[in-house]
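Dear colleagues,

As part of the handover before I leave the project, I'm documenting each prediction I ran so the next person doesn't have to rerun anything. This entry is a single chain, and its sequence is reproduced below.
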Amino acid sequence: MSTPQIETQSFEEVKEHQERKLTELLQYVQNNSKHYKRVFRANGIDVSQIESLEDLKKLPTTSKDDLQNNNDDFICVDRSEIIDYITTSGTLGDPVIFAMTNNDLDRLAYNEEVSFACANTTKDDVYQLMVTLDRRFMAGMAYFSGLRKLGAGIIRVGPGNPKLQFDTIERIKPTALVAVPSFLVKLIEYAEKNGIDYKNSSVKKAVCIGEALRNDDFSPNTLARKIQDKWDIDLYSTYASTEMGTAFTECEESKGGHHHPELVIVEFLDEEGNQVAEDDAGEVTITTLGVEAMPLIRFRTGDICHHYIEKCSCGRTSMRLGPIVGRKKQMIKYKGTTLYPPALYDLLNEIDGVENYIVQVSTNEIGTDDILIRIGAKNVTDKFEKSIKDHFRAKLRVAPNIQFDAPLQILKEQFPEMSRKPITFVDKR
């Protein structure tokens, strides 16, 4: 498909479109959302006075706690209009139920259609989906719907089971994968152990979900290098969430995920709720456009990242989202250093002999943060432990506590029975 016109328009044209849609949205939630009716009344807000994107700051933000505590009050349609029920992954706190109408499902399919198009997907592609389509999961169904809309072929293999993945690659010859990047590392290890010629397979690219592929300067991070040093395929990073029903996917330039301004208004806020400058990291805060069942206004995602507004070399003028620095609630203050888990993951991925890991954060007896990294490794020696700590000191100036466990034990804890994403961070504070 061709790039949607709005993604190549001027800032002024996009702003005009979004402001028109914002006016419609505010009137809609004023009439249909119990939650926002209550919020507007409590804050003395007249939605007719919110006319521009700049006026958004007059509205309070929406938090994950609001969704968890008042879940049903966000629903704007009669139960008979709801087609699909999904839940968030519950990375922080209990999962939230999201309801979707037919129109919401069409919007979701359109989002993935234009997002996969960013990753140079055509109807000639065949995608192997290494993600689940069950367990009330939005993403798998979204990928399927978007690829179907594009006319691409789809193979629904699901997560895990490297043997089945490679059997499918050999038999059906997909051109592309959708997968968590750390699973691609596991696939490579399995192939090398079992004499599978993966380097000469039909696969030419992978759209990667759930984990970052880039450093702050857009260079490949350790995880991306681990894949591409062994397997010469194109990697496209994507960022999305159930709450916004929208994805930010890289184009071939690999300079950030492209915003689809017809689907969501995005702000980047500091601790005080002010918009940050382009050079500063801010919390991704979204207002959904075109959502019927559960629209959200100024929802604070908890994800901290940079954004870029200059025109991309691909021709799109839409804003681009940089790599996620971390999650606001996962910030760690350790021995005078502020850290986010992704910084720890990147270092751990660099160390040979580390098969898997879980980062645990707790509060110590003096009330400060303590880090324990549980590492799955087979050949454990004092020298190995010292080398890990030295690596952390060299890169982060601090060395966390280390505990070695059997890789299989770590694997079981990373993928508990009801989990849809690998658990690599446990917050006990």
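The chain has two domains: 1-325, 331-427. The mean pLDDT is 91.

All the best with the project,
I.
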